[in-house]
Amino acid sequence: MTDYQMGEVETRFANIIWDNEPISSTSLAKLCEGELGWKKSTTYTVLKRLCGKGIFKNEQGTVGSLITREEFYSAQSEQFVETTFKGSLPAFLTAFSARKGLTREEVEELRRLVREYGEDE
């Protein structure tokens, strides 16, 4: 499984890219200066790190994503469940709902998802 972990600041940076892609690296640096207070060198350093993780690409000065925002959050969630709950979705849901509880709407949505999953088999 690919390591798609990002810290809070990296996630804010990633969201800037996802919201504006494709974007020139120069425009990205200007956005990051305004939104994150970064120097151009900081933008390029973080971009290089996230390109190395396989999340983004910088080809001929144009930055774009290799995975969508939804794919990123899906992979991150999967990694969390795998690491924390040994891959057990029921264990995760039990722990999640023990403190927070689930609304009637959330329970119905989970039932719908389970039904749809069963129909696909």
Summary, kept brief:
The protein is mainly alpha-helical. 69% of the residues lie in helices and 8% in strands.
Characteristic key phrases:
121 residues; mainly alpha; Arc Repressor Mutant, subunit A; 2 domains; three-stranded antiparallel sheet; 3 strands; 8% strand
Description:
With 121 residues, the protein is mainly α. It has 2 domains: 8-69, Arc Repressor Mutant, subunit A; 88-121. The chain is 69% helix and 8% strand. The chain is built from 6 helices and 3 strands. The chain has helices at residues 8-20, 25-36, 40-52, 69-85, 89-100, 104-120; strands at 23-24, 56-59, 62-65. A 3-stranded antiparallel beta sheet has the order 1-3-2. α1 (8-20) crosses α2 (25-36) and α2 (25-36) crosses α3. The longest helix has 17 residues, at 69-85. The model has no long low-confidence stretch (mean pLDDT 93).
Structural class: mainly alpha
Largest sheet: 3 strands, antiparallel
Strand percentage: 5-15%
Q: Class of the largest domain, according to the CATH hierarchy?
A: Mainly Alpha
Helical percent range?
Answer: 55-70%
Report how far apart the termini are: 24 Å
Which SSEs are present, and which pair or pack?
Elements: H1 8-20, E1 23-24, H2 25-36, H3 40-52, E2 56-59, E3 62-65, H4 69-85, H5 89-100, H6 104-120
Antiparallel strand pairs: 1-3, 2-3
Helix pairs in contact: 1-2, 2-3
